[in-house]
Design a protein that fits this description.
Layout lengths: L3 H17 L3 H6 L7 E6 L6 H5 L6 E6 L16 H11 L4 E7 L3 H8 L1 H5 L5 H5 L3 H10 L5 H20 L3 H9 L3 E8 L4 E6 L4 E6 L3
Parallel strand pairs: 1-2, 1-3, 3-4
Antiparallel strand pairs: 4-5, 5-6
Length: about 210
């Protein structure tokens, strides 16, 4: 387990890289941010989007939550949560791409698959949150009944990404930009076991590798 000294040493390396000699990047970033991509990813410590995508400071606008889920649009929501993050990225930063970045071995999807009763015995809030993807779970259990648990899990993890893409299109100002060609949506899945990044195709409703290991 990393301790505070490890984190401070890490900041020291960051400081050395960006401030000790050439401050040009942060001179620009002090004026404001202008990332071209919003990444909605899981908060799992093993799937950090900046690290996975090789992004530097200012490159991506990141929103992280349990299971990288996007709820459907709801105007006037009392506590908008992630809807506010998405709105700022799209309307305020004018991002040109939104990536839903999921991963294998997702604990939130595991809680969803275990069911509300099991999750409620341990957590107060997670069950309600992951229930956004309950239709995906129900379809997986129906269509893959009797299949190995690992296969059902993967199908649910990937199905939740597809659902979140659908939910993004329920936001009218996202759909308008997608139809105008000024905003593109992507669904990506990081396979921890294979070390692969897969992309979702709405045409085939399946995932295929984007980049494979060397």
């Amino acid at each position: 387990m990393a301790d505070i000294a490890t984190f401070l040493a890490g900041f020291g390396r960051f400081q050395e890289k960006y401030f000790a000699h050439d401050e040009s990047l942060f001179t620009r970033l002090r004026q404001g941010q202008s990332p071209g991509t919003l990444v909605i990813s899981c908060c799992d410590s093993r799937a950090d989007p900046g690290m996975l995508l090789g992004a530097g400071p200012g490159d991506i606008f990141v929103v992280r939550n349990v299971s990288n889920l996007v709820p459907p649009y709801r105007n006037g929501a009392e506590m908008p949560g992630i809807r506010a993050d998405i709105e700022f990225a799209v309307k305020g930063l004018n991002v040109e791409q939104i990536i839903i970045l999921g991963h294998s071995g997702c604990g939130g999807i595991r809680a969803l698959m275990d069911g509300e009763d099991s999750t409620a015995s341990q957590y107060e809030f997670i069950g309600a949150w992951v229930s956004i993807a309950a239709p995906v779970r129900d379809r997986v259990l129906r269509e893959l009944a009797g299949r190995p648990q690992a296969e059902q899990m993967k199908a649910c993890e990937q199905g939740a990404i597809a659902l979140s893409l659908e939910n993004l299109l329920s936001f009218p100002w996202i759909r308008e930009r997608v139809e105008a060609g000024t905003l593109a949506l992507h669904g990506w899945y990081f396979d921890l076991d294979a070390g692969q990044l897969l992309a979702y195709s709405p045409q085939t409703e399946s995932f295929a590798p984007l980049v494979t290991g060397s």
